Amino acid sequence: MGKIRAAITGVGAYLPDYILTNDELSRMVDTSDEWIMTRIGIKTRHILKGEALGTSCMGVKAVRDLLEKKNMNPEEIDLVICATVTPDMFFPSTGNLIAGEAGCKKAFAYDVSAACSGFLFALTTASKFIETGTCKKVIVVGADKMSSIVDYTDRKTCPIFGDGAAAVLLEPDEEGYGVIDHILHSDGTGAPHLYMKAGGSRYPASEETIRNNWHTITQDGQAVFKAAVSNMADVSVEMMERYNLTSDDIRYLVPHQANLRIIDATANRMGLTRNKCMINIDRYGNTTAATIPLCLYDYEKELKRGDKLILASFGGGYTWGSVYVKSVSYTHLRAHETEADL
Ligand code: UT7
Fold first, then answer.
1. Of 57, 82, 104, 116, which residue is the catalytic one?
2. Which among 76, 108, 119, 206 could disulfide-bond with 142, CB atoms 3.0 to 4.6 Å apart, if both were Cys?
3. Which of ligand 1's atoms lies nearest the C-alpha of 256?
4. In angstroms, what is the span from residue 288 Cα to ligand 1's centroid?
């Protein structure tokens, strides 16, 4: 018997119906489709509308989609980890709310907060529960309602973000597939460049925090851009070197979708062409913890058993990392499908 690894054996997703276009944004702030497309690469983003609907509402729908595709009873799930920076509330955790609503009655659940790297941090954590044999079926959800913390009068940040959720199922694999390795980093000195000042214990909501607009994202775009380009590429190349992987060996880079220029720079350093990058930033924008699983969702039909993927991210914290995954082919099989349907 080989080493137990955590294989991604299913993926589900949810994107809210409302589509915010660059044209609509141009009527809200002084911007243009041309600027947003050339500087970031975003055409549209989905926005969750509706009274009292939080991140968990999208997470639940992603989990239900996943369970339906796998024809799986929610009570089979041992653990639910949700990566998010826009939790429904401080407590209970959004993972807890998702697990409860989705009927994962036997699972324990919690959140991981690592901003745009949240999914990779949560995936790595979840994979350890599988590798040790503690859990057999784990769901990792990446979900964010970024529209709840975006200032739609700030042209520097409002075009960037969107809402969405996606969930992956992890199960044990002993044939050499699954999550092979991770390189994760944090650097708290990056905090002043990307943060939301109020709403936590340091500055609880008050008249002052609202007057000063401290409940929305503050970003020094250029500082984050520079750090993202170098760090995301560094950890991706480091992973390639660790496993003697050439650009030919890699089927896909699965990058966090913050800026098409950051994705291109990372791919270039890895010697990869665009057609080896999963890209959906044009349609969804930056959905923070949801970007990477949304890519896995959109490209699931492309994946074959043994495909080598490098997942990579950079984001607030700072946090960044890369995860090396050897894909299994049944990621996209629906209940009625067989390998012959591929
Ligand atoms: O996922 C979390 C991690 N976040 C990131 O990875 C984001 C990293 N940063 C970026 O992606 C980019 O820095 C931004 C997309 C945020 C900004 O792009 P940029 O090319 O760095 O623009 P900039 O901030 O240097 O601004 C250039 C110009 C400025 O005008 P002046 O001062 O040169 O006259 C801005 O005022 O573009 C102006 N500008 C805009 N113009 C039209 C800034 N935002 C806009 C806008 N529309 N929306």
1. 116
2. 119
3. 1
4. 17
Q: For residues 67 and 167, give the distance between their C-alpha atoms in angstroms, rounded to a whole number.
A: 10
Task: List per-residue pLDDT tens for the chain, 342 residues long.
Answer: 689 999 999 999 999 999 999 999 999 999 999 999 999 999 999 999 999 999 999 999 999 999 999 999 999 999 999 999 999 999 999 999 999 999 999 999 999 999 999 999 999 999 999 999 999 999 999 999 999 999 999 999 999 999 999 999 999 999 999 999 999 999 999 999 999 999 999 999 999 999 999 999 999 999 999 999 999 999 999 999 999 999 999 999 999 999 999 999 999 999 999 999 999 999 999 999 999 999 999 999 999 999 999 999 999 999 999 999 999 965 555 555 555 555
Cα of first residue to Cα of last residue in the chain, in angstroms, is 28
Distance CA 120, CA 320 (A): 9
How many Cβ atoms are within 10 Å of 290's Cβ, its own excluded?
A: 36
Query: Would you give the DSSP letter of residue 277?
Result: B
Partner residues linked to 45 by β-bridges: 20
Residue 264 CA, ligand 1 centroid: distance in Å: 17
Does ligand 1 come within 6 angstroms of the Cβ of 155? Answer: yes
Cβ neighbours of 204 (radius 10 Å): 9
Q: Is 286 a residue of the active site?
A: yes
Neighbouring CB atoms inside 10 A of 159's CB total 28
Under DSSP, is residue 69 helix (H, G, I), strand (E, B) or coil? helix
Q: Of the residues 46, 256, 277, 295, which is catalytic?
A: 256
